[in-house]
Amino acid sequence: MDESPAEVDVTMSQVAAPLAIEVQEASENDAATGEVVFDLHDVNVYYGQALAVAGVSLEIYKNHITAMIGPSGCGKSTIVRSLNRMNDSVSGFRLTGECTYHGNDLYASGVDPVEVRRRIGMVFQRPNPFPKSIYDNIAWAPRILGLKENLDERVEKALRGAAIWDEVKDRLKTSALGLSGGQQQRLCIARSIAIEPDVLLLDEPCSSLDPISTASVEDLMQELKRDYTIVIVTHNMQQAARVAERTAFFSLDVSEGRRTGILVEYDETSKLFTRPTDKRTEDYVTGRFG
Amino acid sequence: MASVDYSGPLTPTGNLRRRRVVDRLARGSATAAAVLAVAILLIFIYSIVQHGASVISLSFLTKNPLETFSVSGNAPVGGIGNAIVGSLLIVAIGTAIALPIGVLIALFLTEFASPRWAGPVRLALDLLYGLPSIVIALFLYGLLVVGHGQAGVYASLALAIIMVPLIARTTGESLGLVPKELRDASLALGISRWRTTVGLTIPSAFGGIVTGTVLAVARAAGETAPVLLLSSLANPTQTSGSVFSQPLNNLPYDIYNFSVEGGATNFAKAWGAALVLVTFVLVANFTARALHARSRRMMSR
């Protein structure tokens, strides 16, 4: 079997030997400056009275791809959705601790969540194109945000940026719902970058895609990190290993009948997968748990 | 022990024969009930067309009655032109009032209200929907007509009260069908809640909103009690009048009036007016269905 990373079937994730994981080398990213974009310090998230995620502290760096892995329910999505305040609409959501973005507290009283999301875009687990034409999917948000000049160019640039331009350039006026799942997800990425955000949050962007579409989205992420800071939540350890410079491993702490998500270990991906310092991380990445 | 010979021919054994009869009976009666509903509608439409078609003519549809309805039973000559115009005006104004209120209530329920508030408001809508139209009409009669006299617009108000819960409910249902993922996608692009609602949620639910409105209009057009109490003392020959200050002749009232007058000519006219009204309601329903089907294609394509 061909061992090159792009050929690894995502369905192998449950059975593949951990030694087969090829780890992304951090050194090949020349855009990374080490500037901190997000700085989380002792962040706790509550849903109502229940403590959902406890004591998360980590720094996310500019022009890096940062992956968050861990078993279901460990709070990785919750943390990512807290970074652009998508959890605001969840009833009972409450966050304590320090959560800053370029030094500004995301949860300070004067912060407008709409402005936060304008700078920090998000792509979701299931492709969710609008029931509009391909063109309008991209152009809708720029129009509303007042970016009306050279709209055609902006749309083309976004579609090229998301590596889907060649596939859709002849059918821009047709419905986006006629695209395949992988195309729809790249369209959603194009939609996010059309407003030129600073950060892209990807919440399990490949979990509903086939291996070929997954590979194209992963290639795309490598292109995008030149211009954007990317945070990706994934169930797929190989994916984290392939794309991310840094990886955070979350786990569930079950004590006194309560299940709380915790950040177990956060480090360079290569180190986390090959020389984890925590026993739980080692058990997880070697497939002995989860 | 086993009562079945497994190697025997695969024909019914045991009580299967009886169970099959029960099965057929149940299926037969259900089918018969469905056929009955369709048959009633067809017979109904047939008889209206049969009785009413003969009086339908351009002059019947456009001319006004030439003389007042008299207590002596003289047949009024002429057509139902002013009743058609009056009905259209009354229903149009009622719709213009009810549509924005209904849609706003639906938006409140699906987009903005907490469950604590949505429940009671929904219950109130259901109760409002269940109010007999004669009671609504009586209420408005006491509030507006007494001391002021009747006016077409009062009937519009009553029809609006009847339409609001219908429009709010159907709009709310179609807004609820718009996936949460779409709203999330829009919010994640830095677009505010209200712009998301106006630019994405409402267009996605547009077919449902139109359907609900058309069905409400069809229901309101045939409502008799409100127009009887609030807009009936019209001079039947009156050709034009302010809908805001005067009662307007209208189709349900014409049907009622022609019928109580009696006589073959009047009955024929009542059937003719009924045919016009039923045609309007049916066309409205079919339009609503077509629009609904179209919007569902748009959503799923």
Distance between the termini of chain A: 26 Å
Number of strands of chain A: 10
Per CATH, the superfamily of chain A is P-loop containing nucleotide triphosphate hydrolases
Mean pLDDT of chain A: 85
Q: What fold name stands as the CATH topology of the largest domain in chain B?
A: MetI-like fold
* CATH topology name of chain A: Rossmann fold
Q: Tell me the Rg of chain A in angstroms.
A: 19 Å
What secondary-structure arrangement, pairings included, does this model have?
The complex is a heterodimer of chains A (290) and B (301).
Chain A: E1 36-47, E2 50-61, E3 65-69, H1 76-83, E4 93-101, E5 104-105, H2 113-119, E6 120-123, H3 134-144, H4 151-161, H5 165-168, H6 181-193, E7 199-203, H7 211-224, E8 229-233, H8 237-243, E9 246-255, E10 258-268, H9 269-274, H10 279-285
Parallel strand pairs in A: 2-10, 3-8, 3-9, 6-7, 7-8
Antiparallel strand pairs in A: 1-2, 1-4, 4-5, 9-10
Helix pairs in contact in A: 3-4, 3-6, 4-6, 6-7
Chain B: H1 16-52, H2 58-62, H3 81-112, H4 115-130, H5 133-145, H6 152-177, H7 180-187, H8 193-204, H9 206-221, H10 225-230, H11 251-261, H12 264-300
State the main characteristics.
heterodimer; A: 290 residues; alpha/beta; Rossmann fold; 10-stranded mixed β-sheet; 26% strand; disordered N terminus; B: 301 residues; mainly alpha; MetI-like fold
Summarize the structure.
The complex is a heterodimer of chains A (290) and B (301). Chain A has 290 residues and is of the alpha/beta class.
